[in-house]
């Protein structure tokens, strides 16, 4: 991919926000050829909040998560995470931001050649420098949290899709990230496996202070966990608010149309 590498160069440090703002997009634009995906997008997320991005397919939601993971670079605008500017940024600082952001994808992306426990311990050992014992203790706690304490010694291929996704959630949390990005984490699952994964995420949302940015079509789930819902269309946020208001009384015609189609 051509746009994956951050530029190491002079970064202007941005002071931490006094408002508790953790993520900020300022006038961010992104084009793929002729296709303007994000158009001077502004939004911010406060630390500890759970924010859901909704909107039609192709409205740029995944692109936003990928930018936070420094997998896709914006053409214009600034993105800051915890006061650190991401583009441009020094390689070391990008690594630090990425360590603080966990992402769970639609496809679970587990390491197929490693047993479940090792999937969860690998990054804490190699990236954070935890001892094997420390990493294993943390991994066992997290596997318990996602209901898979008894699956430490099996390979991912021996698990259902829902179980694999729960391992992927434990693996993301093992890095103790400040932010958890969830990109349509149930859309590749058989319908009967969806509820188990969403229940685990509800638990995490309730019991931790992690900041969550979530792309989902599961509107009941969004309603349960979100502090704020952002509706995307035409490369911008066209409407946002608490889930009760957004789902019960959307003001924008496009939001009404979209919710009418998915609810
Ligand atoms: P959403 O998550 O809202 O469905 P995406 O962020 O995945 O939207 O995609 C927004 C638009 O950007 C889509 O039209 C998609 O085809 C396009 N797009 C995303 N990534 C690329 C890429 N690497 N190259 C070309 N087009 C892309």
From TrEMBL:
Its main location: membrane. Residues 1-21 are annotated as: Disordered. Keywords: Amino-acid transport, ATP-binding, Cell membrane, Membrane, Nucleotide-binding, Transport. Residues 23-259 form the ABC transporter domain. Signal peptide: none annotated. GO terms for molecular function: ATP binding. The keyword Nucleotide-binding applies. It is a peripheral membrane protein. It comes from the Bacteria. SUPFAM superfamilies: P-loop containing nucleoside triphosphate hydrolases. It is found in: Cell membrane. Coiled coil: none annotated. Residues 1-12 have a biased composition (Low complexity). Pfam families: ABC_tran. Belongs to the ABC transporter superfamily. This is Ectoine/hydroxyectoine ABC transporter ATP-binding protein EhuA. It comes from Streptomyces fragilis. The gene is ehuA.
């Amino acid at each position: 991919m051509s746009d994956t590498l951050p530029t190491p160069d002079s970064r202007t440090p941005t002071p931490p926000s006094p408002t508790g703002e953790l993520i900020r997009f300022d006038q961010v634009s992104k084009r793929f050829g002729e296709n303007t995906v994000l158009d001077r997008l502004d939004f911010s997320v406060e630390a500890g909040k759970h924010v859901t991005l909704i909107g039609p397919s192709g409205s740029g939601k995944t692109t936003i998560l990928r930018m936070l993971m420094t997998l896709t670079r914006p053409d214009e605008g600034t993105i800051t995470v915890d006061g650190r500017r991401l583009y441009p940024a020094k390689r070391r600082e990008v690594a630090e931001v990425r360590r603080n952001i966990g992402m769970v994808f639609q496809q679970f992306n587990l390491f197929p050649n490693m047993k479940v426990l090792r999937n969860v311990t690998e990054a804490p050992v190699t990236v954070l420098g935890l001892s094997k014992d420390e990493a294993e203790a943390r991994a066992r706690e997290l596997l318990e949290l996602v209901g898979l304490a008894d699956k430490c010694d099996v390979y991912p291929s021996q698990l259902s899709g829902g179980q694999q996704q729960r391992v992927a959630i434990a693996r993301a949390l093992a890095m103790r990230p400040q932010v958890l990005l969830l990109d349509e984490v149930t859309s590749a699952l058989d319908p009967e496996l969806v509820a188990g994964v969403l229940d685990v995420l509800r638990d995490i949302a309730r019991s931790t202070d992690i900041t969550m940015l979530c792309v989902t079509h599961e509107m009941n789930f969004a309603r349960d966990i979100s502090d704020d819902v952002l509706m995307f269309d035409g490369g911008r946020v066209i409407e946002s608010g608490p889930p009760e208001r957004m789902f019960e009384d959307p003001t924008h015609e496009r939001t009404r149309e979209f919710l009418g189609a998915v609810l």
